[in-house]
Amino acid sequence: MNYYCYIFFLPMLMVTNLMMFISTSWFSMWMIMEINMISFISLIIFDKNIKSEMFMNYFLVQTLNSYFFLFSSILINYINMVELMLLMMNLSMLNKLGMPPFYMWYLKIMKNLNWMNVLILSIFQKIIPLLILNNVLMYKFSMIFNLVLMMLSGLYSSIKGLSQSNLKIIFCYSSIVQMGWIIIMLIFSEMMCINYFMIYTFIMINLIMLLSNYNINNLNNMQLIKLNNKINYYLMNMCIFSLASMPPFFGFMMKLIVIKTMYYYLPMIMLLMLIMNSLISMFFYFRLLFNNIMINSMSNKLNYKFINQINKYNYKILLFSWLSIILLMMYEIM
User: Fold this and answer.
1) pLDDT tens digits for 230-289?
2) I need a labelling partner for 306 at 20 to 30 A (CA). Which of 9, 178, 271, 289 fits?
3) Which residues cross the membrane (predicted)?
4) Is the pLDDT of residue 58 over 80?
């Protein structure tokens, strides 16, 4: 992998995300979104796993949705079909996020990226579409539409993730499930959404750095972490338990706060559907742990010579990430 491309294009990508926070017009949002897209495309060009048709697939999907957004943002002030233009704008952002029913391009790209680009696409490339959705969600029609669609998306992605063994595909479905929760939170509380997104970001950074460090792409290879370093193994378990929303981990605490907040706004049937989505998604998170728990270490002694050559994980990043999560949870609870 060519790391020099990240020195130039990754800061540009981060700056465009920050610029979106101070953008005040639809046109400036569109311009920032285009610069952000060019920055990420410049990164994946250097990814040896990406074929030319995958690159063109991403480019065409993003460009088409950007122009749908621009078209609807222009017409919204000139015609009397505000709801139709909002729907078009909403769907274009959901497509950029890779949410069902527009997730096939997202799945194809994710399973062919390297782990660094998986992290960028599943976390940092979500910021701009989420900020635009936040402006669209001020309208009641968009709130109801997104609430129903996110519940169905979470249920569908949870079921689809149960039969997968490729870790990048599993994290693709995981990202869809988590984005569903984040968009639902965005409807009710921006601060709650920001806190959940930051906790999810810290957890994914730790988890993906571990998988990248050991070059693990399949469920059957996750045993290498346990054989090489027990601390890394327990860290990975903590991250996965938190993503699965198991008590007393941070993911559970955050979802508990969300459900408590939504209790006053949503019918009980919708709350039960959200809880059911979380229970189903737990199973494919637990599959990440199953091979490690059931492993017979005696049968893998031949792997020690290889895995002991793997670089050590940076525990300063670990300490910073988990302290940040603890502070965020304390702020949210208080």
Assistant:
1) 777 788 888 888 888 888 777 888 888 888 888 888 888 888 888 888 888 888 788 777
2) 289
3) 6-22, 29-46, 66-91, 112-132, 169-188, 194-212, 233-258, 264-290, 313-331
4) yes
Cβ-contact 196, 258 below 8 angstroms: yes
CA distance 157 to 305: 39
Residue 166 DSSP code: B
* Contacts for 53 with CB less than 8 Å, ≥ 6 apart: none
- How many helices (H) and strands (E) are present in the chain, helices listed first? 16, 0
Domain layout of the chain by residue ranges: 4-333
- Token pair belonging to 159: 């079921």
Residue 320's H or E segment, with its range, is helix 315-333
Can you tell me the distance from the alpha carbon of 152 to that of 154, in angstroms, rounded to the nearest whole number? 5
Q: Which of 290-299, 301-310, 320-329 has the lowest mean pLDDT?
A: 301-310
The answer to whether residues 241 and 249 touch, using CB atoms and an 8 Å cutoff, is yes
Contact between 155 and 173 (Cβ < 8 Å): no
pTM of the model: 0.86
Q: What is the mean pLDDT of residues 4-14?
A: 84
197 φ, ψ (degrees, to nearest 5): -65, -40
